[in-house]
Amino acid sequence: MSPTTVAARAGLARGRIELRQAFSGVELIGQLFWPIATLVALFLVRDVPVGGGTTVDTFALPGTLGMFVALGTLLVVQQLAADREDGSLLRARVMPNGIPAYLLGKFVQISATVVAYLVILLVPGLLFVDGLAISPGSWLTLAWVTVLGLVATQTVGAVLGSLVSSSRGAGYVSVPVLGLLAVSGIFVPITALPAWLAGVAQVFPVYWLGLGMRSALLPDSAAALEIGGSWRPVETAVVLGAWAVAGLVAAPIVLRRMARRESGSRVAERRERSLQRVG
Question: Which of 58, 80, 177, 221 has its CB surrounded by the most CB atoms within 10 Å?
Answer without folding.
Answer: 80
